[in-house]
Design brief:
Blueprint (H helix, E strand, L loop, with lengths): L7 H7 L3 H8 L9 H7 L5 H8 L3 H12 L7 H12 L8 H4 L6 E5 L1 H5 L5 H10 L5 E6 L4 H9 L3 E7 L2 E7 L25 E6 L7 H8 L8 E7 L6 H8 L1 E9 L2 E8 L3
Parallel strand pairs: 1-2, 5-6
Antiparallel strand pairs: 2-4, 3-4, 6-8, 7-8
Amino acid sequence: MITRDMKISKLLEEYPGSLEALIRVSPHFRKLENKMLRKALAGRVTVEQAARVAGVDPDYLLSELNRSAGSTAAVTAEAAETEAAEKAEGSAEEKPEYLRNLSPGKIVALDVRPILDSGKDPLKDIFSKVKELNEGEALLIINTFEPVPLYSRMKDKGFTHYTETEGGIWKVYFFREKGSVEKEEEATISPAAININDYENIIEVDVHDLPAPEPMVKILENLYRIDDRSVMLVHHHREPNLLYPRLEERGYAASCTRLGEESYQILIVKKKV
């Protein structure tokens, strides 16, 4: 049975016909026909998040997916639509006072539509803009859909968000109010804790020149080669922050060292039980 917290990548893998069902619910999901974009985004978006991104009711999407998969546990479309209408009443959110008082010159805009149209993941561009923000500035993301998965990532960096939509265009403001603090990245293991000399075998994987999302794919595909006596040495052009949670859930730990401009060394080992 398909559930609302199932990742889209797992959905497409286990239910091959689900892509057609997604597109029937909303043309927005045609973006998933782009294999590169699907690899980049589908692994971190759940069914419920995908519904919000496409602007459809999660229960309705779940119903259609389960119906397509032959599940009798799906809710009816009529009931879902009714519930969605009830939720929509009075749901308008007032623009925060912080943004109302912010001068236009303090808003840094990034239109990610051209990036997505080229088949690339805009996350790197977004985080580059975040690093460039000065104190008191806000980041405005312009898109054709609501970037729901980005909310939690930006929240961890101390950002609040405000979302508005008009004419099919989504505008999401990310800003730090006074007192907001960026959470420290959860380190799977400190850099000093992995000593390459402690391992008999070194497995080198060079992803330096690969475009996203191929570096993550190649690294994950080679994890099976790591055992208790082996360490994987990855040569990368940036720190792969999105990789760390994937390693954590698979029982691996990593540390990253910056060697120079666009030159990083990542060590990956199997966690000791």
